[in-house]
């Protein structure tokens, strides 16, 4: 099964790797493929919202917030009653748990894993790279670690998640992946020049 | 670029929003009771004031919620925005 599936950026993995550089003015790019993505909808204050929150160890309550951790299971705020849970590939068990928690109540638990892929940027120039195309303020004073926002990168709608001091994840719809990978390859070119 | 304050997401670029026309236009209680002219007025006729105007906007590139805004049509200034009842807050 694993050798049969092809991620949206698989054909560009080598180019993403080659484009990276290290050091304070470097940035490394890679695709994090096949993560489990579960779309959640539940009204805050409802019993279903509470049960989903119990499964996940809390749901984010306001714009920018996330719960959990990027290394394991995390949930991003999309709207007051809409969230995106991210987990390791093939986390079917979590999907089942969340479906059970929602039960027949109003709301939704939907497997959206094929909807988006993830590009990770790590390095001293990660923020500078993103700032070339993201209108949101990425300065640490307004975009802290573990924050995530819906925004655009170039013309492409993305979810942008700051997972560490110098690490960001860009969650983008698979059909835009090719375009955005080339956009990023171009954007990091200036950092390949080592001084 | 204008900043529009989404009631859920805070100030965002205007390019993230779409316009939804005049706010508080109620759906007719009994559409079948209306004459063609009254139905036409409901569908197509809207205020066009010079100055303050209550409008609907949707944050398409963000939380995707509809909300109401009070905007000055002369200066484009957003005087206030509020979540639409029913859109979870
Ligand atoms: Zn919003």
TrEMBL record, chain B:
Entry protein name: Sarcosine oxidase subunit delta
InterPro entries: SoxD, SoxD_sf
Gene3D superfamilies from the UniProt entry: Folate-binding superfamily
GO molecular-function term, one example from the UniProt record: sarcosine oxidase activity
GO BP terms, alphabetized: tetrahydrofolate metabolic process
UniProt xrefs under Pfam families: SoxD (PF04267)
